[in-house]
Amino acid sequence: MTEQPTRRRALECMAWAGTGLIWTVTGGVPRSALIGSAEAATGFTFAQMSDSHIGFAREPNMDVPGTLAEGLAAVKVMAAKPAFVLHTGDVTHLSKPAEFDTAEKLFGTIGLDTHYVPGEHDVLDEAGTKPFIARFQKRHTQGGDGGAFYSFDAEGVHFIGLNNVVDLKSGGMGNLGAAQLTWLERDLAGRSASTPIVVFAHIPLWTVYEKWGWGTEDGAQALSLLKRFGSVTVLNGHIHQVMQKVEGNVAFHSARSTAFPQPAPGAAPSPGPMKVEAARLRSMLGVASVTLVPGQGPLAIIDTPLGA
Amino acid sequence: MRRRAVLAAPLILAAHIARAAEAAVTIDNFVFTPERIEVPAGTKVVWTNHDDIPHSVVHAGRPPGFKSPVLDTDETFARVFDTPGRYEYFCGLHPHMKGVVVVT
Prior knowledge:
The structure holds 2 protein chains of 2 kinds. Chain A is α/β, with parallel strands linked by helices. Chain A has helices spanning about 5-15, 65-75, 95-105, 130-135, 180-190, 220-225, 280; strands at about 20-25, 30-35, 45-50, 85, 115, 150-155, 155-160, 195-200, 230-235, 245, 250-255, 285-290, 300-305. Chain B has no helices and 8 strands. In chain B, the strands form 2 sheets. Chain B has a 4-stranded mixed beta sheet with strand order 2-1-4-6, with no helix packed on it. In chain B, a hairpin with a 2-residue loop joins strand 1 and strand 2. The chains are: A alpha/beta, B mainly beta. At the A-B interface, loops of A face strand 7 of B.
């Protein structure tokens, strides 16, 4: 048995996670350790990638397809052999067909399925979510017409891909909407509370920084539907930096982008791309692996930057 | 760096909108500047995105009375406001960004 961490320890883990930190959750209790001192993960693993922004070509990254390819290469050599990739949105920068083409081609090179949810940059076309669904969500039964949300099961884990980037309201943040929440309630009904749940969506479901819109208006309603489950992991993107915290049995994690970093909340006049020098860029881009170890319930997230 | 708002001086357009006044709103650092602009009826308001992230201009009515395409860096959107009233709008990608056009 893992030692019982104190509340102080849990709060420490809610602080910023630095490069090379491994994050594990045992029975809903957080624990973190530097990579190298952590026990080797031996369970079912998948990768999280986010915010590819194919089509972006400005400082600090003029070669976004190149850094996406580096991220994919990093996934391919992960020791834990991920079963598939979850993409938490902003696959493209401007929803252009050519951008979708490039992304689809690159993700097709690693021989792993990728399960996508849209970011606000992926639904800019007049047709809304439809081009994204047709391109990236074909294999899934949609939870609602044009909704771009769905669920699936793998290795005893229930995965829920949510869409919180459409029908945004003036002055608000991310939005799930009533129809999606109703679907989520139905999707969870009858499932055993011991089923590990992984929720993935673009904009953080918890409020990271309201002033920059980094949160989801009705995220708390979704989380209340997940309360009875013993292990819930929420994976997000959008903020282009690693951030994590734990509330009860819910572990929140946001992944790095493979395109450009964004500033820490309030650390710059706006959340626009950080103009970091080329030598530093890859230390601020990256991918994540998530491992569930059967029988013990721990869940380990390792964030790996593309470079030092 | 935040640029200050510049209200374009009224200018005579050779095009079909004769003597139409023009007013400018810029987008810098995820802020519409000025956030509130007051113009006489018939004014053409032009939004220009100076950020290196795309934005849009969406009327806050449901459904919206007007909506720009997505504006990449340095792209513009123009709309002539013929009817007096208060037109609240926001960015469709970053809805915490809000502005208002008051037409007198």
